[in-house]
Specification:
This protein is α/β, with parallel strands linked by helices. Helix content is 43%, strand content 20%. The strands form 3 sheets. A 5-stranded parallel beta sheet has the order 2-1-3-4-5, with helices on both faces. A 4-stranded antiparallel beta sheet has the order 6-7-8-9, with no helix packed on it. A 3-stranded antiparallel beta sheet has the order 10-12-11. It is elongated. The chain starts with a strand and ends with a strand.
Length: 230
């Protein structure tokens, strides 16, 4: 079932949304404030987010910006604010649609479906050519099997090491920022913990590089991020 995260502090409205959306085969997660919404968005990976702008701990527009810093999940604003400037701010911040209260319970699922379809079509259009195997002079990475072969043996990587390596390999030749790597591997609450990256990159270099002190493939761009150079 598609998963919807409803971010709304009006308990009565949340109850009505939950009943109506579940009747249309949606799985519904609830958050009454921005802090809870960010945590659920990161851990539960909803297919679409419905949020009110008037939250108790953060303005909804700022919450949209925070989510857009690391996720492209469709966001539908459900708000009592009718002014065009409020709509423009929300849409410019990254919302996919804006519905004003009161609204039709029949219209809302249709807008959710439309937002999801648009995001899926955009993702498919932007998807790069699929690369399944990367071979270097020192090792071979099989992205489908999630294995690394070095010489005649298999390199044993932890799930975290593999996730980090896979992101870099899928962006071969391009700088991936420290914050982006931390968001993708550990979640948005860890995006300032650069020491995590230093430790795991050192481990990957010991496993893959002929000379971990002078890496050939796993390159550091000082103060910015890392790059896999095939």
């Amino acid at each position: 079932m598609p998963r919807v995260l409803v971010v709304e502090d009006d308990a009565q409205l949340v109850r009505a949304l939950k009943i109506n959306l579940e009747a249309r085969t949606y799985e519904v997660e609830e958050a009454s404030d921005a802090g809870s919404a960010l945590q659920l968005a990161a851990t539960r990976k909803p297919d679409v987010i419905v949020l009110d702008l008037g939250l108790p701990d953060m303005d909804g527009v700022e919450l949209i910006k925070a989510i857009r810093g690391w996720s492209r999940v469709p966001i539908l604003v459900l708000s009592a604010r009718h002014l065009s400037e409020d709509k423009v701010r929300a849409l410019d911040a990254g919302a996919d649609d804006y519905v004003t209260k009161p609204f039709s319970m029949d219209e809302l699922p249709a807008r959710l479906r439309a937002a999801t379809r648009r995001r899926q079509a955009a993702a498919e259009a932007e998807a790069p050519t699929t690369v399944t195997t990367v071979t270097t002079d020192g090792f071979t990475i099989d992205l489908v099997a999630k294995k690394v072969q070095r010489g005649t043996g298999t390199v044993r990587l932890t799930p975290t090491e593999w996730h980090l390596l896979e992101i870099l390999v899928r962006n071969s030749g391009h700088l991936v920022s420290q914050r982006a790597l931390l968001r993708e591997v550990w979640g948005p609450t860890y995006q300032e913990n650069s020491n995590y990256l230093r430790v795991y990159m050192a481990q990957l270099r010991r496993e893959l590089e002929a000379d971990s002190g002078h890496p050939r493939y796993l390159i550091t761009e000082a103060g910015m991020g890392y790059r896999f150079e095939p």
